[in-house]
Prior knowledge:
It is built from 17 helices and 19 strands. By secondary structure, the protein is α/β, with parallel strands linked by helices. It starts with 11 loop residues before the first helix and ends with a strand. Residues 41-42, 50, 110, 203-204 line the site of magnesium ion.
Amino acid sequence: MGIAVSPIQIDSRVSDFISKPRKMLIDGKWMDAASGKTFPTYNPATGEVLAQVAEGDRQDIDAAVQAARKAFDSGPWSQMTPSDRGKLIWKLADLMEQHLEEFATIETLDNGKPLTVARAADVPLAIDMFRYMAGWATKLEGTTIPISMPHAANSSYFAYTLREPVGVVGQIIPWNFPLLMAAWKLAPALACGCTVVLKPAEQTPLSALFLGELFVEAGFPNGVVNIVPGFGETAGAALAAHELVDKIAFTGSTEVGKLIVNAATGNLKKVSLELGGKSPNVVFKDADLNGAISGSASAIFFNQGQTCCAGSRLFVERSVFDQVIEGVAAKAKKINVGSGLEPKTAMGPLVSEEQLQRVCNYLEIGLSEGATAVTGGKKMGDSKGYFVEPTVLVNTKDDMRVVQEEIFGPVVTAVPFDDPEELMARANSTIYGLAAGIWTKDISKAHRLAASLRAGTVWINCYNVFDAALPFGGYKQSGWGREMGKDVLQLYTQTKAVCTRL
Ligand code: NAP
Ligand code: MG
């Protein structure tokens, strides 16, 4: 089957943006790489080169870190009032809103996701993240603490704490939600008064670079936000190891997360990690089954399955197993797969040739180990784009690789269960602990299970609900720390205790 990719008129501002080689943002200026090198970013719907981007490496990272250091240690950023900092972040959000369409188109061209999704989810959520965090800039408070000093009973003290920015932050982000991940990282760091060097993913650098233009337009002082595209093994590794970086925040694979931890040991910089997942999604027989079927399908198929919290292990109570699997498979078959620019597309291509190979490889492994595809199971069509069939696998065993390892594609494994105790143990039996879903009308049962699931987020009768106010992050090998909400402020501030003898 072929996949139609009809020529679509692209906004002239976007075609202008992608027609020129994109530079990196260092100290408020747009620079070529010190090496002069560029690398291509591709349109995953066609496999064609979309744009050329400056290839940052150690020297560029060093220049960016020096700029961020200067801006933090002595620049106007440190003197700015929290209120002015908040206003600047809000202004950036306003500018983003004015450019919502361009952001959505860039995201679709570079990542492959449906334009309708980028427009309704990725970009508005990113804007909201900046607005939510703009409000926190003025609310970072310490406390006054009465102290007793039992061994110096006759002296008295006045003690308080300050919440201070952690300093220069290195941020490394993935390709699945390029703009949104940039927002999750940048917004809290800036609200807290940190300065940043951001390295976007090599597959999707464009929306972060477009955002960089708006940081300049909004009037952020030079060096506060530096954006250096490049490869993980070179630019990313140099950032993670840099001695002048106080903290590194990373989102990506668990494997690379461990490399980041090692790289950070040189100066013991602080580390936060948002890593992979293999999240259980549990449907009980007393659920609203129509809702559970639609919700379970979108839990895995949203964003082509390239979501760290995707509901990739479906557990269904045995008496409704066939009905639910039939329903999810029927939804999978009806998904319109195609170029993200087509208005009717509900699922785009995977992000890269490499990701397509990876997912297809997992499908072959699963099928050869005895799993059966109720629907899907292979690459889709003969187009040059990276399309894969939405897939439902049954007859799996809990120790199979397709059940244990993160596939990061539109592939769900489904198993029946009988007993809630046994279910809980099976649901928790992976190295990951990012998210989980529960579908039931029995609210006590739902809360009991929510308490026993080792996961950073539990969705009850819903899935993939994100909000700037709601903390998100992983148990076990799914990460360290929480992004969003009030919790993320812990990652970008540190506490100073001040004690005065009266
Ligand atoms: P990845 O290698 O973990 O990439 C994430 C980010 O880390 C990218 O910016 C990457 O740069 C950078 N990076 C890679 N190696 C690095 C190193 N040694 N030091 C510092 N930074 C480094 O993920 P991927 O290879 O793109 O995807 C592989 C798998 O990771 C996926 O199939 C999926 O299972 C998982 N993943 C998870 C998430 C998530 O949200 N939790 C997101 C993406 C991928 P480059 O882009 O230049 O390599
Ligand atoms: Mg691309």
